[in-house]
Amino acid sequence: MRAINDLRDRMIVALDVPTVREAYHLVTRLGDGASFYKIGYRLAFAGGLSLAEELTREGKKVFLDLKLHDIGNTVREGVESLGRMDLAFLTVHAYPQTMRGAVEGRGAGRTRLLAVTALTSYDDDDLHDAGYRLAVQELVALRAQQARTAGIDGIVCSAAEAGIVRAAIGEGMCIVTPGIRPAGADSGDQKRTLTPAEAIRAGVDHMVIGRPIIRAVDPRAAAGAIMDEIAQAS
Length: 234
Ligand code: C5P
Hints:
Number of helices: 10
Bound molecules: cytidine-5'-monophosphate
Oligomer: single chain
């Protein structure tokens, strides 16, 4: 299930731009140098759902990062509606009811569901403030196990948590990680970054990469260099 036929699918380019026009321009510049794109809130709520369908029609894979969370029934209905889009990945928060609803809504569809265990902007104090009694790493491990039980296909986590997550989910589910920076790149606001090669060695299946590609003077060359590093480490 974790076998990746096209090595390019390991690199997911985050289309973190405000308009569909800019996103499409970027996709065109990347050409066949990238096969997988992530669309988050900003673009999704600015015409990005239609773009997602168009990219899928053109043979690209799309990761729709909506981090859904609601009562199980509402999540099920929402995921059912998204089924027609034939997404590659869709995110939900890793609450058991939410995950069960998403798995039901996906039914026999091809969309692979990813669960977000604990938002990486939360530390132990933030969780305590939010009423949790578990530390971040305990919550991540618990929710990763619950994701497995619910029938979720993969986990989104920071590279720092990849080991804990892999121990909790076993070999069948995939791990998707942001916070990747090629050697020498500006880490920006990402705190604990890994290089693409380190991420592969940490057991990451797919890495989400935004600014190092989309803000590069030559995005295609930047993506190519990252792919070379991934290929060498794979
Ligand atoms: O530009 P950069 O490579 O940092 O982009 C990473 C992408 O992954 C962005 O779309 C960002 O929202 C997302 N992300 C993240 N850190 C997390 C979760 C998601 O950077 N902990």
